[in-house]
Amino acid sequence: MNEADLDLIRKAKRGHLDAFTRLVHNYQNFVYRTAYGILRQPTDAEDVSQEVFLKVHQSLKQLRDERTFPTWLARITVRTAIDWKQRSSNQRAGPLDETRLATLHDPRDAAVHARLELHEALMRLTPLQRTVLVLRELHGLGYEEMAEVLGIPVGTVRSRLHNARAQLRAHLDEERGG
Question: For residues 34 and 8, what is the distance between their CA atoms, to the nearest angstrom?
Answer without folding.
Answer: 22
